[in-house]
Design brief:
Layout lengths: L2 H9 L5 H24 L4 H11 L3 H11 L6 H21 L15 H20 L5 H22 L20 H11 L5 H22 L4 H19 L9 H20 L3 H11 L10 H11 L17 H4 L3 H4 L1 H9 L1 H23 L4 H25 L17 H19 L18 E5 L2 E4 L6
Antiparallel strand pairs: 1-2
Length: about 475
């Protein structure tokens, strides 16, 4: 059988177009390499190709095996929990907040619950789109996507297309979550470029920090979370030696990057209200009537919580966060739910969310593709940070406003951004056997390597049984 006939019959068994192209290219390379060996043994070119094809075995069997290995996968458990938490979030918002009315809520109108339902459906749609998109596009077009993303934010903010509150576009802060997977692709694209790759990666991080701090404005907490995650991703790529720099220089580069980040923050300077918040964090009771009043009120509410049943009496929100704390629909949803349903119900909801985050982390940890692992860790880390800060806020440990709690808090930008991250995480799982990773330092004689997964290389070779 001729080589092109063999490849045509083999790839005819493979349903995925991406896998079909890659498998055909790699098996063709393997056959040609093996034919060269036979030619060196004294056979003619035609005889060598014929023998190399014969050694591959049945094209139908090989094709079926390749189709079984290289096809999209669905993580039904994660998908099911995402749907469950989406429904739970809407139920919590309606029964614990909006059924009491909106007169005590901050910047909320009467159709708030309907709007949140719309935001959730839009988020699910965005998640579905990213779920079916190949996440490896970030490795090939990460710089283009990241550049367009930052420029778009700058244009939207400077053209006055979004609402300005307290001198900033604070509601857009969580949009920067989506820069995290883009930054992962940018870091991956600079592999093997030496010290220039490290410098360019830092410049991208500074550009994102400037966009978030100076253009979007508003509170700095969310920006610091995003920049912290991006910085950890940079350290991951640096210590995995993606840039092929000397081992002794890696700690120095890491410390230098940290010093640069700290210097930029110092340059921005802390505003008077931020200094006041810092003092209040250190001594909340001394500022009970000023910056730290939220901590005091939160702790007072917690003292009255019941294991079963809440504080509400006669169907009124008296004594609950929506009556005593500003922005309860953004920051204090869990405390409001505990005031309405009791501690047990909130414990179950928080436990489900933490379990969901653990499943996401475990899913990413099992990835052998370095790009998928880096992007996945970044997406999970920002969700963990957001969840941790919000739960501590509801427990009265901190009082700085957070981005919210995934699935449970009100907000359009926040909801869509969270579902966007989930879509990318699901895409990483879906295409984990369809991303063909090659090291930038792979030698020419290794062209017949089918794929490289972490420190391991996979080859196709015929076994004589």
């Amino acid at each position: 059988m001729e080589m092109h006939e063999y490849l045509s019959e083999l790839t005819g068994q493979i349903r995925n177009k991406k896998a079909k192209q890659e498998v055909e290219r790699e098996i063709r390379t393997h056959i040609e390499d093996q034919a060269q060996v036979y030619e060196q043994m004294g056979r003619t070119r035609d005889e060598a190709l014929e023998e190399a094809v014969r050694q591959m075995g049945s094209p139908v069997e090989v094709g079926i095996d390749m189709d079984r290995i290289h096809r999209p996968k669905n993580n039904w458990m994660v998908l099911g929990m995402a749907m469950l938490l989406s429904l739970a979030g809407l139920l919590v918002q309606y029964f614990c907040i909006y059924r009491f009315g909106t007169e005590n809520l901050y910047r909320i109108n009467q159709d708030a619950f309907a709007r949140q339902c719309l935001y959730t459906f839009l988020g699910l749609g965005f998640m579905s789109i990213l779920y079916f998109c190949d996440y490896s596009l970030f490795s090939r077009y990460g710089k283009l996507i990241g550049g367009l993303f930052l420029v778009s934010i700058i244009l939207v903010c400077n053209l006055g297309m979004v609402q300005v509150i307290n001198g900033g576009h604070s509601y857009m802060k969580t949009v920067m979550y989506l820069f995290i997977p883009m930054y992962g692709g940018i870091l991956y694209g600079y592999r093997g470029t030496g010290y220039s790759g490290v410098i360019r990666s830092l410049l991208w991080l500074l550009a994102a920090a400037y966009t978030s701090f100076a253009v979007i404005g508003g509170g700095i907490g969310i920006t610091l979370d995003v920049m912290s995650v991006c910085f950890m991703m940079l350290m991951y790529s640096l210590f995995r030696n993606w840039y092929q720099v000397k081992r002794k220089s890696r700690p120095i580069l890491g410390l230098g990057a940290l010093a640069l980040a700290g210097g930029c923050y110092s340059y921005l300077g802390m505003q008077p209200y931020q200094m006041a918040r810092l003092r209040a964090i250190l001594s909340p009771w001394a500022y009970a009537r000023e910056e730290a009043f939220q901590v005091v009120v939160t702790r007072d509410i917690m003292k009255q919580l019941k294991f079963l049943g809440g504080l509400t009496k006669g169907g009124t929100p008296e004594g609950t966060p929506i009556h005593l704390l500003p922005g309860a629909q953004y920051d204090y949803v869990m405390l409001q739910a505990a005031s309405t349903w009791g501690v047990l119900a909130v414990g179950i909801l928080a436990g489900l969310l933490i379990l969901f985050l653990f499943l996401l982390f475990h899913m990413v940890k099992k990835q052998k593709n370095q790009l998928g692992q880096l992007i996945g860790y970044g997406c999970v880390m920002i969700l963990v940070l957001e969840t941790g800060w919000n739960l501590m806020l509801n427990l009265g440990f901190v009082f700085v406003s957070t981005a919210g709690l995934p699935f449970f808090t009100y907000g359009g930008y926040h909801t869509v951004a969270v579902y966007g991250l989930l879509g990318i995480l699901l895409s990483i799982y879906r295409y984990q056997d369809l991303i063909w990773e090659r090291s930038p330092k792979m030698k020419a004689e290794d062209n017949h390597v089918l794929a490289q997964l972490g420190r391991y290389r996979i080859r196709i070779e015929k076994m004589d049984l």
